[in-house]
Write a structure and sequence with these properties.
By secondary structure, this protein is mostly beta strands. The protein contains 5 helices and 43 strands. It folds into 3 domains: 170 residues, Immunoglobulin-like; 165 residues, Immunoglobulin-like (Sandwich), CATH 2.60.40; 316 residues, no CATH class.
């Protein structure tokens, strides 16, 4: 038996993860007022779970591959707040049948969700708290019950001897989380007015423990958790406490395989440590010098078997020991060794502690490395751009705010695009559909809305105003969006796509004035800012429009992009106007997007401009070139009055432009020259492309 000297260190990693602070909740009235029948008040929520990038673990390296922020069920408890700040229970909403009313949430990727509830009009001007519990439930509070009763509720799962890590994070059940909606970054008391917008941060109620083998000649055989708490509170207690003194004597390590042998290192070879992720989950508990949790590890070195117990205790300089509490939403990593083989009977251990907010890539996949199909799919699914519907709206009833049908294929022919699929911005505004909380509902209860300028920017960069253009061929001809036509007969400006890196900033939400909300520059739910770069590709077509090969010739090229580097929306892009079939004048805009690892510093614009990069692993959005009706023809939208059908395509957004009033509404547009998000006269008739609110 190998003798072991235990040396425990604690390293606090501060500032690695964004601070766990709630962001603002605006209570300014929206233009739409109450519900359609005046009986309800819309209250919208953006919910953030403790997630970073929605990237999977390797299936061989973890107990399961379900994201640790997944919401399977959500319960909202509404409390009335008196002048002294005391809350009393009013009602409960839930995503299942347990609530007084049902709510539906929609995932935006990367652990963010949106939903809107309809508060009764009797709540107008009331002061309330909105308290959330995810993936756990208990009996409904009694009417008028104090909020203090809720704060002292226990999680539904009781750990017993031999229970594994999966018990607290079972696939299909999820990790329990809790949180309270906030206003102004800290105020939990919300005044109910039409259009109130709230945000809530959910926090996991458990901690996670990983084990890292950093000793080349050591093989781990087993790991167990000793002294873990059997129950946990749904909400944090001050001071930290466990509800009962009972402790698990022995908890197993679930299905994590710890038996991988380390081969002997070759001369000059660098040892790579192996991390066994999600080895344990545990309820929080305080640790004292005489009562503490520990990780008991059995290992083998040079055919000798040993066991060591690593306690949640910090060893200070001089030998003093300080207990380390197990806190909710924290990640504890036991590191075995220092990267060197064990040559004596001393084995060193380090205990790392950090906020558990991000999700790691699998060890075998690093930034810039090729992703397996499943990992790429999960990365793609985390992009916010997935909120867009696959096709344009085909039938809309503005008065009833109903979406009757979507297209199911690309078709720019006149019969497939009747006049009633085109709308002026003024019509949308008069129908109340440009308000932030305005929705269109289909026959199955799914909700949709107009995108904002910033959301459309997830698909296409913004039109470059003259003051912001760069010098390329001439002064102010450099455009920071896809401009592919370099034929001087039709590109007389001559505009050129800027191919040097630039900082791209978009604003994802509107303010109450329908202008982009620029007041939250540090909040990624409002502002997305990162480094971008574009590159024009090789010519694929030459088009005459109309059939005049001398003066109206357009050179068609794909344009490639790397956008929002340094953010969790970092992705490669490919834009191109393409033929629907054989007719070169019946076209659509193809937008291909392929998510990249947020820490990827290896992929270059030249890599993205190689067509082999786009053989697979991308998502694609297609916009039909169904033309538009100019303001002069908007009042008489007959087939003969449509403009540029087959080659130009458009769609409205809900945002306005700060420029002149004659061109004051934002839209997506693409042509035979280029594609961008620009601005147009509100009296033009464009089609609609919507984003999903719930489904």
């Amino acid at each position: 038996m190998l003798r072991v000297m235990k040396r425990i260190c604690l390293q606090a990693f501060i500032g690695m993860i964004t601070a766990w602070t709630a962001v603002s909740c605006s209570s300014e009235p929206a233009a739409c007022g109450c519900g359609d029948d005046g009986s309800t008040i819309p209250v919208s929520f953006t919910m953030n779970t403790p997630a970073g990038e929605a990237v999977p673990y390797g299936t061989t390296r973890a107990t399961h591959d379900e994201a640790e922020w997944t919401i399977h069920r959500l319960t909202l408890y509404v409390y009335s707040v008196d002048d002294a700040g005391r809350g009393t229970f009013l009602r409960r909403y839930a995503t299942d049948a347990s609530g007084d009313q049902a709510i539906s949430i929609v995932s935006n990727g990367a652990g963010t969700y949106n939903f809107t509830l309809k508060a009764p009009v009797s709540d107008l001007k009331a002061r309330q708290r909105f308290v959330f519990v995810a993936n756990d439930a208990f009996d409904e509070p009694s009417p008028g019950e104090s909020q203090d009763e809720l704060e002292n509720k226990l999680a539904g799962i009781t750990l017993e001897e031999g229970h594994s890590a999966d018990k607290l994070a079972a696939k299909g059940t999820g990790i329990a989380m809790s949180g309270t909606a906030t206003a102004d970054g800290q105020n939990e008391v919300i005044t109910i007015v039409p259009g109130v917008k709230c945000e809530v941060k959910l926090t996991r109620i458990v901690a996670r423990v990983d084990v890292q083998n950093n000793t080349p000649n050591m093989t781990l055989e087993s790991a167990v958790l000793v002294g873990a708490a059997t129950r946990g509170y749904l909400f944090a207690q001050a001071p930290l406490s466990a509800p009962v003194a009972d402790r698990i004597v022995l908890g197993s390590n679930a299905t994590v395989d710890l038996t991988e042998e380390h081969p002997a290192l070759k001369p000059g070879e660098v040892f790579a440590p192996k991390t066994f992720r999600k080895t344990f989950y545990a309820y929080e508990r305080p640790n004292t010098a005489g009562d503490y949790a520990a990780v008991r590890i059995t290992y083998r070195v040079n055919d000798s078997k040993g066991t060591v117990e690593v306690p949640f205790i910090r060893t200070e300089a001089g030998g003093a020991q300080t207990p380390v509490d197990i806190e909710r939403n924290h990640l504890y990593t036991v590191v075995l060794g220092n990267g060197k083989p064990v040559t004596t009977n001393e084995v060193q251990f380090t205990f790392k502690v950090e906020d558990w907010n991000t999700v790691e890539m699998p060890e075998e996949i690093g930034p810039g490395d090729p992703l397996d199909p499943k990992s790429q799919q999960k990365l793609n699914a985390a992009l916010k751009v997935n909120m867009f519907t696959p096709f344009n709206a085909k039938s809309v009833d503005l008065g009833a705010k109903k979406i009757n049908a979507f297209y199911d294929k690309l078709d720019v022919a006149v019969p497939a695009n009747p006049k009633d699929v085109y709308f002026t911005y003024t019509e949308l505004q008069d129908a109340g559909l440009t308000a932030a909380d305005a929705v269109l509902t289909d026959g199955e209860g799914n909700e949709y809305r107009l995108p904002t300028e910033g959301e459309l920017n997830l698909l296409l960069p913004m039109w470059t105003e003259e003051a912001d253009r760069a010098t390329v061929n001439k002064e102010k001809d450099g455009m920071y969006y896809p401009y592919w036509n370099d034929n001087s007969s039709t590109n007389t400006f001559p505009y050129v796509t800027v191919e040097t890196p630039f900082t791209e900033t978009i604003y994802l939400k509107n303010g109450t004035d329908n202008l982009p909300d620029e007041t939250h520059p540090a909040d990624p739910e409002y502002t997305l800012k990162g480094e971008s770069q574009l590159k024009v590709g090789t010519q694929t077509e030459q088009i005459a429009y109309p059939a005049d090969l001398v003066t109206n010739v357009y050179n068609i090229r794909p344009v490639y992009g790397l956008r929002f580097k340094g953010t969790n929306q970092y992705a490669a892009y490919r834009w191109e106007t393409c033929k629907i079939a054989s007719d070169p004048l019946e076209r659509y805009l193809s937008i291909r997007i392929k998510a990249l690892h947020p820490q990827d510093n290896a992929t270059t614009i030249d890599d993205v401009a190689d067509e082999t990069f786009w053989q697979d692993g991308f998502i694609e959005f297609q916009f039909p070139a169904s033309g538009y009706y100019s303001p002069e023809n908007a009042g008489n939208p007959t087939p003969e009055n449509i403009t540029h059908r087959g080659v130009y395509g458009y769609c409205w957004v809900s945002s306005l432009w700060t420029g002149d009033s004659d061109s004051g509404a934002r839209f997506l547009g693409f042509y035979l020259n280029d594609a961008h998000v620009g601005h147009s006269v509100p009296g033009s008739r464009f089609p609609l492309r919507l984003v999903k609110v719930s489904e």
